[in-house]
Each structure stands twice: as structure tokens, then as C-alpha cells.
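Sample A.
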Amino acid sequence: MPPERETDLYPPVRDYLVAQGFTVQGEVAGCDLTAVQAQDPSDQGLVVVELKRHLSVDLLAQAVQRQALTDSVYVAVPKPSGSLRRGRWKAIMGLLRRLELGLILVNVETGAVEVACHPLPHQRRRSPTRRRAVIREMRGRSGDHNRGGSRGRKLVTAYRERALEVALRLEEQGECTPRRLRELGCCPKTQRILYDNHYGW
């Protein structure tokens, strides 16, 4: 269960940072928690933590605004029950890294604090393989047959279009060899489509 108030997250995070050698204060210039290294006389070691009962877009926007003050900005939320390495939280972790935000997880029952990730510079990496797959799929389709945002319905993919083309030719011509189907305009992978019989037609 999430804590009743955001202030319930403050003591565990404060105590954790104090144990790491920080001087901590709450509600400074609109920031939920601010901390500086006790032994660092400069202003370079400022840490800002935004506390929330739930992780939300508003929290991320607020944390990004705090990056005008320091590179060391964290968001602190109750620790989720599931794994951070799959599902929704895997995507969230990727987003936090792209935004160069740190994540602090608080076990509300025990008060234990875990730093899931630190705010480090992020180098965006693209996947040439996935990029080529997207472009290949687009070029393999004959048109725009799906409504964007659809859920729970079968989509018309390039593969499905090719399979439908094979099925249509077979319906028109009767039994045909893969070679004959290719001569009639079916794709070069016609034999594989017939062999796989993916749709059970």
C-alpha cells in the first residue's frame, strides 16, 4: 500500500542521505528535499529529491525542472512489488535514464531505501536492426490498413498481405506450385508461406 502522505517518505530518504554524509533539509525553494555533502564547502554537491506517492508524468516534469539547479536530481517513490527488469517498470527505468534522473525506492513498511539508478549522462543508442525491420515492414505493405492505436484486433502486416495474396491466387487458380504462384505475382517467399501455413488456411 502507498503511504498516506508524501511526507511519510521524507524520514527514510533523509536518514539514508545523512548516513551517506549529507546535510539534509526539507522544503527548500520548492524542492521536497535538498542535500549537500557536509564536508564539501563548494556548491557543486547539491542533491535534490522529489517525493511522491506515485510515479507520474507530473513528477517527472517537476524533476526535470529541478535539473536547472543541479545534475543530481532524484525521484523517490514507494518500492513497487514487481521487478524493475520487466513490464511497465522496465520501460520506466529506461525513461528515467534518458531523462538523466535518479530513482530512489522506499519500502514503506520497513523504511529501507534503495537507489535503483543514479542520474548519469545518457548516450542515446539506436538499434540499426530494429530500424531496418520497421522500414522493411512499411515497404512490404501495400497501404495503410490499420487504425493507429488499435488494441485487441488482428493487424494487417506485410506478411499477412503476402499470405492473403497467395490464398487469393490459389482460390482463383486451384492447386499451383510455388513457382507458378510466383509467376502469377506472389512474393519470392511464397514457398515458405505455404510451408509455414501460419494462419491455418
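Sample B.
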Amino acid sequence: MKLLINVAHPADVHLFKHLIWMFEKRGHDVKIIARNKDLCKTLLDIYGFEYDLISNAGNGIFGLGLEMISRTIKFVSIIKKYDPDLVLTMMDPPSAIASKVCGKKYISLADTEHSKLVINLTLPFSDVVLTPSCFKTDFGDKQTRYDGYHELAYLHPNFFQPNPNVLSELGLTENDPYIVMRFVSWNAIHDVGQRGIGNKKDLVKMLEKYGKVFITSEEKLDVELERYQLKLPPEKLHDLLYYATLYIGEGATTASECAVLGTHAIYVNTLRLGYLEEEEEKYDLVYNFSTQDDIEKKVYNKALELLKNPSLREDGKKKRDKLLKDKIDVTAFMAQFVEQYI
């Protein structure tokens, strides 16, 4: 089988990495097309993947539009030359349109209901859309649901075992409390008009009373917060999240990563997501704060409530056990689905 996989975001690298390695071991030919966004290229290099980099992420609606046109043209050329049996990506208009133009089977994955523009531009050209069972949008006959989350494609115990050595690199032990925070850049199309954590400095000062604070941020931090910036290779972040006392941030993927690792997460973002709502309502591992009114006060109160619990970490790992019993190995599911579809 010849498979073309598009990687347009750092999270896509994690989503597909074990699938790519699995297919290569089975003798399949896999070609990776990449987009230079945030740490996407860095992660591909760290994991030793060969790939074709075809664009840099555009800025603003105009820049993203130009990038989309350029990527679509390049994808058509690549698909015609490589001649894959199937194209597999997260929902992505350029690769979807190019696949249809070239008459190739196209499977997309989706877990973000509010990415409406991307969905509307990709769905008509998709043969199948794979979504978590908790995904709140109905795509009709094209949709196949599975009991899992994207994060379980790389953080399921079949693939991920935490490495405590990451703690010593930061001068910590497994008994030391610490909090990880994440701030996003708010430059995606669906981020227009949205908001997250407002008074970051006051929140950090409050959290410091309960443990060391590490911040990972897509945007440049204020001078007062620079000393909290996490200095750790990106491929070790999941080890750090596993041992963390608490996560607070605007990043949805990181919140869900924490949930499947058994670390409680406070998600502060006016955008709602089906998988995070399920991780709150069913597993009590994520706490979603999306209303504009008194969002900071509510976040402070919830953080204090959690941090005052001396068994917070142990409770989180027990909740994780329940989650893992309910959910599947998403990489194994994707592999089986793709091979059967071909």
C-alpha cells in the first residue's frame, strides 16, 4: 500500500507518528507532506521522519488563503507523481481538494467542532471522516465514530510510558508539586473574537504558593513571566504532564493529553469541544471554563479547590484507569480501518 499523510500542525505529528512506524514495519510505503507551523518541523526532525515541506503557515485570513491556494497546487503535483492508494490527514482543504482532483481516496479525521470553515471546505471532498464518539457534529453517511480521542493515538499505554528522568532535568522529584500552564497565540481563524486567561500574572502568583510553575506559550511572554518559561525539549512535554500536579491553560489538545495521562486539567477558552466536555462530565479530569463572566474568578476558585487536595495526583491516575478501560487504542483502530478500506 502507498499512503500519503499530511502533517499541518505539531499535534498531527503525534497523531500519526506511531501509525507511520507501524505501516513501515508492515512493508507499506508512506510519504509525509509537512507544513511549517510552530514545532511541526522540529518534531518531525526529532523523530527522524523524512518529509516534503511545502509551505510556511500563513498569517491572517489573507495569508492563510494564499497558503491554501499554493498548498492545493503543490498537493495536486505531489499526488500525481507519487500516485498513492489513499490520502490520510486531519481535515485539510488543500489535500482534500487535490485528492478529489486526482481521483484518490481521501480519509480525514476531525475532533474540533468549531473549525467550521475547514469542515465546510473539506467535507465535500472526503470519502470518510473519522471522529471520536463524543464529537457533537453529525456528518451523515461519511462519518465513522470510534470510542477514543486523538491523544490516545500516542498516549495510550501501548505506546507511552512516562520517563521520570524529565523531572531531574528540571530539578524536581516525583514528590514535588508543580503546575504546567499553556497560553495559545489566538491567530487561527476560529480564534477570532475568543478569549482565555486574562490576568495571567495574578494567576501565576497564586499558583506559586502550591508548587513550581512552568509556562509553555505560543506567543511571547511578558517580561515578568519569562522566568517561568519551560525549557524542555518538546518531545519530553508529555512526560512532564504525566507527573504534573495540575494543568491550567488555553490549549485544548494539552488539556486532553493531561486527561488521558491522569492529570487534572483546567481548560480556559470560550471555545467548547465535545471531547473536553466528555472528559469533564464522564471522567472528572477536565474542568471547562468558557463563559465570559467572571472567568478568572471561577478559574482561581477551581484551581484552589484542586490544589488543596493532598491526593490530587493519585485521584487523577485512578480516574485515568476508568478512562482507559472505556477507550480504544486509536492508532490500532486507524491502522485496521485504513488497511480494510484499501
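B remarks: Residues 189-194 have pLDDT under 50 and may be disordered. The longest helix spans residues 60-82.
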